[in-house]
C-alpha cells in the first residue's frame, strides 16, 4: 500500500476528484493549506498599500491506494491538476505499513 499526497491549486480540486473517480480510486482527504515553493508568493494592493503574500492557498489531498493503483493515481492527478504554469504542485508517494478501519476492524487492503 502507498500513501499519495498531492499539493494542487484549489480550483483544480473538483477536476482531480473526478479524474481519480474515473480511474477507480475512491476515498480521499482534502485539506486547505498554504505554502510556497518556486512561486514565492506575490504582491497585492489593499486600500492603496502594497503588501507581499508569502504563502499561497493550496489544497493537499491524501489517498491510500494499493500498489497496483499508484501509477493510475499519479497519472490522474497530473492530468487533471496541470495548468502548465508555475505553482501546479507536487505529488509525494510513501509506503504505508498498516491500515485499520475503526468501525469493522478490517485491516490493510480490505480497509482501504
TrEMBL record:
Descriptive protein name: P-II family nitrogen regulator
Quaternary structure and partners: Homotrimer.
PANTHER family referenced in this protein's UniProt entry, alphabetically: NITROGEN REGULATORY PROTEIN P-II, NITROGEN REGULATORY PROTEIN P-II HOMOLOG
Assigned keywords, A-Z: Nucleotide-binding, Phosphoprotein, Transcription, Transcription regulation
Pfam families hit by this protein: P-II (PF00543)
Keyword NAD recorded: no
Family label: Belongs to the P(II) protein family.
